[in-house]
Each structure stands twice: as C-alpha cells, then as structure tokens.
C-alpha cells in the first residue's frame, strides 16, 4: 500500500508539472489574452478562474487515464474522488458546480465499481454522513465472511 501511494504521488506530481509546463510554455498567448482584461478586475479574475479550471481538468484527465490503465485500482479511484472533492466543496470558484457534479459522478463510480473495497466504503461514508473522527474504520467495514 505504501509503494502504491508513492507511485500515485509521483504520478500526480508529474501530472501537475506537465500542466504547469504547458501553461508556462505559452506565455505570449496567456499575456495576449490577459492584456485586454487588465482594466477589468472581473475579466482578470475570470482569466485566472479559467486557467484553474484548465489545470483541474488536466489532472482529472490524468486520473482518468491512469484508471483506464489500472481499472481495479481502488486507491487510485479514491484519490481521484478526494482530489475532485477539494474543488467541489469550494464556494469561491466560479466553476465549483462543475466540480460538484464531477464529485457526485465519482462517488457513484466508487459505489458501482468498488462496493466491496473497505477503503472505498469508508471514503463514501466519510463524505456522505460526515463520519470523520467518529472511530469508524476500514477494519470495521471489512466483510465477515471469512
């Protein structure tokens, strides 16, 4: 499990660096797009929000690609939902509603594809019923048909 987390962290770091490199590779396009918006704080904020959404979508796409290559990887699916949740519950972003829909779809995917996985069940419980810190653990959710 520890090795899987290390691989996942490495994968996410590469995805984030790739996104940042793609944005940095086209400064003239970004600067040209922004130049007309400088006199309007609303347009400047929209510019930033759009770039955030682009970066968010790039990371979600990277998760989707990794899950296509590893369809039985519950830890990766849980990490994807956790990533999306961080944006879905944000009230400060214009595109938070889109992330909220992504999070609902991610939870449905966990329920459908990983219903028997204790960690996935725990994630769903924590985010549905706010059981975080109540002492419910993945061990308590493990099937007893041994």
Description:
- The protein has 146 residues and is mostly helical.
- The chain has one domain (2-141).
- It contains seven helices and no strands.
- The protein has helices spanning 2-24, 27-35, 41-69, 74-88, 96-113, 118-129, 138-141.
- Mean pLDDT is 77; it is low at 130-134.
Short summary:
The protein is mainly α and 146 residues long. The protein has seven helices and no strands.
Any descriptors?
single chain, 146 residues, mainly alpha, 7 helices
Provide the fold topology.
Elements: H1 2-24, H2 27-35, H3 41-69, H4 74-88, H5 96-113, H6 118-129, H7 138-141
Helix pairs in contact: 1-3, 3-4, 4-5
How would you sum up the major sheet? Answer: none
Question: Ends: how far apart?
Answer: 22 Å
Q: pLDDT average, as an integer?
A: 77
Residue ranges: pLDDT <50 for 5 or more in a row?
130-134
Query: SSE string, helix = H, strand = E?
Result: HHHHHHH
What overall form do the CA principal axes indicate?
A: elongated
Count of individual beta strands: 0
Which structural class do you get from the secondary structure elements?
Answer: mainly alpha
Rg value: 18 Å
Helicity level: over 70%
Number of helices: 7
Q: Provide the number of structural domains.
A: 1
Strand content: under 5%
């Amino acid at each position: 499990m520890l090795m899987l987390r290390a691989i996942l962290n490495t994968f996410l770091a590469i995805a984030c660096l790739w996104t940042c490199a793609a944005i940095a590779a086209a400064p003239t396009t970004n600067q040209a797009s922004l130049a007309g918006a400088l006199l309007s704080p609303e347009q400047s904020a929209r510019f930033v929000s759009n770039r955030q959404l682009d970066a968010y979508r790039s990371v979600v796409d990277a998760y989707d690609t990794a899950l296509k290559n590893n369809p039985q990887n519950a830890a990766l699916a849980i990490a994807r939902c956790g990533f999306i949740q961080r944006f879905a519950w944000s009230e400060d972003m214009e595109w938070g509603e889109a992330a909220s829909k992504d999070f609902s779809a991610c939870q449905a995917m966990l329920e459908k594809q990983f219903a028997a996985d204790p960690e996935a069940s725990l994630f769903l419980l924590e985010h549905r019923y706010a059981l975080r810190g109540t002492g419910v653990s993945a061990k308590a959710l493990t099937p007893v048909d041994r």
